[in-house]
Amino acid sequence: MAEKSNINPDTPLKGPLVGIRVLDMSRILAGPICSQMLGDYGADVVKIERPGTGDDTRKWGPPYMCDQNARQTQESAYYLSANRNKRSAAIDMATPEGAERIRQLARRADIMLENFKVGGLKKYGLDYESIRKVNPAIIYCSITGFGQTGPNAHLPGYDLMAQAFGGIMSLTGEPEGSPMKVGVAIADVVCGMQAVTAILAALRHRDMTGEGQHIDIALVDSQISWLVNQGMNYLQSGRVPQRRGNQHPNIVPYQPFATRDGHVIVAVGNDSQFQRFCEILGVPGLAENPDYATNIRRVENREKLIAILAERVRDHDSADLLAAMRARKVPCGEVNDLAEVFASEQVQARGMRVPMKHAYGPIEVIGNPVRFSRTPVTYRRAPPVCGADTEAVFADWLAEPEE
Predict the structure, then answer these.
(1) CATH class of 254-258+263-334
(2) Taking all residues of the chain, what is their mean pLDDT, rounded to a whole number?
(3) 64-78 pLDDT tens trace
(4) Catalytic site residue 55?
(5) Cβ atoms within 10 A of the Cβ of 240, count?
(6) Burial, 238: exposed, middle or buried (Cβ in 10 Å; 0-12, 13-18, 19+)?
(7) Which CATH number is 21-226+348-397 given?
(8) Exactly one of 110, 188, 221, 389 is catalytic; which is it?
């Protein structure tokens, strides 16, 4: 059993990970998403970057941030999306001096995060086996495309490759169209989030035993893990699922429909909801038809049913149909573009659009979705300029003598 905490339960903390140090050797997206979340939760995150160039994504624009004089900077929106609550230290790990400086920081770190190719850090003495010799309690997380083992371990890993290899592209897109990637780098994002959960579990283990460990997480493994019902549909039936556009493989109707003036989402989850939906559309008898009365029959006869429903829905304005469905408790919703998303009262109420002060001027970032009752997420640092904190980090982390 863990020892009783000496934290006063009546004193709110700045975050549940206050006091945890993260040495972030990652770049692009999966690793930075992970370290940004750890930073949101209060950890002190130091991002190691190449002097002069920094994270590759700094150049992934347009758009780029503009300074207070409306001049374009080298800070891309892509980079800004995944690097708040961090400090940047510019260190050339390819030099013996640079590698040693990183090892000095690793001695003081609780967590080290990297996403280099398998074995890529060994020649610098920055791989897990080297780092554990100077810090046995460290939690060292490696993110790669295919993991540290297996015939594909040596291959580079990118989000598009993970989506293609892991099957999600085969399920996304119109039935007669091409395989389609998701509109954001979702394999990277979810892998970064799963890395956070793994790191927190390893922290719990270290707190109980004093043992550090190596975490091996792959984009492809992560993507396969969230095939969820579609993956299990295949494993149970042996039939390869087909692309269905915006339709659901196991529930009908569960998709967007075109209205007279736009689109609405209809997400009927049970037979009574379907009956009420049919009444709203003025075809109550449809819910009594044996071909459509139960979900299993609606799935079997989806093409005929969707054609009937689509024709009826087109006779309604979006706002009127949404109001009627909400009044009858039929799950439904708008189809928003990003301007509508970020202008919505719901987004404002939930704090998902956050103003911050960047070195070049004010910016807004997308908020963290987690709401802690006692240790709230904080937005302490805007995404850093490359190398802005190099000397401050060493003065801070190495100020105290080693135990």
Answers:
(1) alpha beta
(2) 95
(3) 999 999 999 999 999
(4) no
(5) 11
(6) exposed
(7) 3.40.50.10540
(8) 188
